[in-house]
Amino acid sequence: MTEPTAPAADPVLAHHRRDGATGPPGGRAAVIAGIGSYVPPGVVTNQDLEKRLDTSDEWIRSRTGITTRHVVDAGTATSDLAVEAGRRALASAGEPGADAVVLATTTSDRPCPATAPDVAARLGLTGVAAFDIAAVCSGFLYGLATAAGLIAAGTAGRVLLVAADAFTTIIDPLDRGTAVIFADGAGAVVLRAGTADEPGAVGPVVLGSDGTLSDLIEVPAGGSRQRSSATAPEPGEEFFRMRGRDTYRHAVMHMLAASEEAVARAGWRLADVDRLAAHQANARILATVAERLGLPPERQLSNIETVGNTGAASIPLLLAQSAAEGRLTAGHRVLLTAFGGGLAWGATTVVWPEVKAL
Ligand code: COA
Q: What's the whole-model pTM score?
């Protein structure tokens, strides 16, 4: 880790500038200008799940930290969640415009085309660049890096990044290993061009992947591999699967390493981190990561108890809810980290800006 050396009022912000957070030194940084989130009104409790699965409220709470989760009703798709979160983020930013819409999702409305153009059109942004990102639960961090790149390159001056998943549409309702964990929701941020020393500037983004373990988290059927083979998919192969115990170990390892690297590349020390905003995969994973990073529980943001694991939406939903509830306030130095299918992981830093979360 690098110790701050540049003379400045705020050494953390100075390091964002010195390290060239999202582009070449002196280049344009991506700055959070607005944030919004949306969860569908339907709620499923652990007691509801007890009625249809061989599970218990006690098992779910002690192994995952989840008590309730929001789920879409029949007919509601990922784009519906994304449009609402996007609308709120644009309102939070105070200006309706964006010249690119990036959607991170695993549950696109259709295999083709991407869902982002539809989301853009429904937000009155027909004509702008719009595309999806597939990085499963790390989608928001991959999206931040992509949005920052668009801004640094001058391709866009203002990006609406939405992360939305209707995970319950691909979960096997009879698989107790996943049905108790995954849920639905959306979060979105507006990123504008700015400078790396401003509050809200996205810090250096650390990303990684390991495709040798792509079968730990997968939907086996529905893609070109299965479609081009002569055999029909086995029953249930259209559903999402996760090898939970193996995934757990990798999740802790990669979130820790990515977090340490992101903090170092921002020129921070771990002791500088005021809030950890980690992908809400499992309360035990979060506690382990926070403990190993030396961050006490009061610095850990968490909403898994009431929303479950919402895939790509997890981090922006957490940030928006935490900001709205006052657990995350302007000036907090926030460490973001995620891990999921791919395998893919990431981390970055941001000094929380003065924004009203909607
Ligand atoms: N209710 C009751 N029992 C359950 C259950 C449920 N919902 N799900 C699994 N079990 C059982 C298993 O069958 C197993 O029984 P056995 O010992 O008789 O074989 C036992 O509980 C332990 O299963 P295991 O999978 O080892 O539990 P775990 O402590 O690892 O917890 C997860 C399971 C999924 C909660 C946990 O592994 C996890 O969170 N993994 C990582 C998820 C993650 O980070 N994903 C990232 C992508 S988003």
A: 0.92
